[in-house]
Specification:
This protein is α+β, with helices and mostly antiparallel strands. It has one domain: Gcn5-related N-acetyltransferase (GNAT) (Aminopeptidase, 3-Layer(aba) Sandwich), CATH 3.40.630. The chain is 24% helix and 27% strand. It has an eight-stranded mixed sheet, with helices on both faces.
Length: 205
């Protein structure tokens, strides 16, 4: 459970029965928030919603529930790296009225705990360069994160500790609120290569 300003949201794993609620959640986001999540102000299609609900074998998805509705969503998509590492790509979004209250951080913690339990080695996130709130949250928690700058995207790469050194909390557990102090991101590299994120990339806490 995450609490802020007298409000509480419970973090749990997404289910196939959440499809309609997820559709309503994404449709209710502002164009700015949808753009920061998907790098375009799009509304997810039925196929995208199935993926966002964890309907594919390589996707772990969690939601934040408050007042009987979804107020936040996060997903991790696993893949194998070229060097044999296990990598998960994370995307997070929170309803406009709930942003800045710790919900995004709680969703992230749930995904990371599950990723550690699966033996994932690295997590990556694609973030718009002007999304300073997310970048500050990431760098405030992982000062050692690797950052690659492109013209329209910042890719963050973090090595995860093993579950044995950081005991996991299942997505259904009640999680405390965490607020992260921002840090200044590293200076961009000169003449970075252009890079377009995938349709399910991008983040908004």
């Amino acid at each position: 459970m995450t609490r802020a300003a007298g409000r509480a949201a419970e973090i749990r794993r997404a289910q196939s029965s959440d499809l309609a609620a997820l559709g309503d959640f994404f449709a209710g986001l502002s164009a700015r928030t949808r753009s920061r999540r998907f790098f375009a102000p799009l509304t997810p299609t039925s196929a995208m919603l199935r993926c966002l609900s964890g309907g594919t074998s390589n996707v772990d998805a969690v939601v934040a529930i408050a007042g009987g509705g979804i107020v936040g969503h996060a997903m991790a998509s696993d893949r194998a790296g070229s060097d044999g590492d296990s990598i998960t790509e994370i995307g997070v979004v929170v309803a406009d009225a709930w942003q800045g209250l710790g919900v995004g951080s709680a969703l992230m913690r749930a995904l990371i705990a599950s990723a550690q339990a699966r033996g994932v080695t690295f997590l990556t996130m694609d973030v718009l360069p002007d999304n300073r709130q997310v970048l500050a949250m990431i760098l405030g928690h992982w000062a050692e994160a690797g950052i690659d700058y492109a013209t329209d995207c910042v890719t963050v790469r973090v090595r995860l500790r093993s579950a044995s050194t950081h005991p996991p909390a299942a997505p259904g557990t009640r999680l405390p609120t965490a607020r992260y102090n921002g840090r200044t991101a590293a200076r961009p590299v000169a003449n970075p290569p252009a890079r377009r994120p995938s349709a399910l990339s991008g983040n908004r806490p």
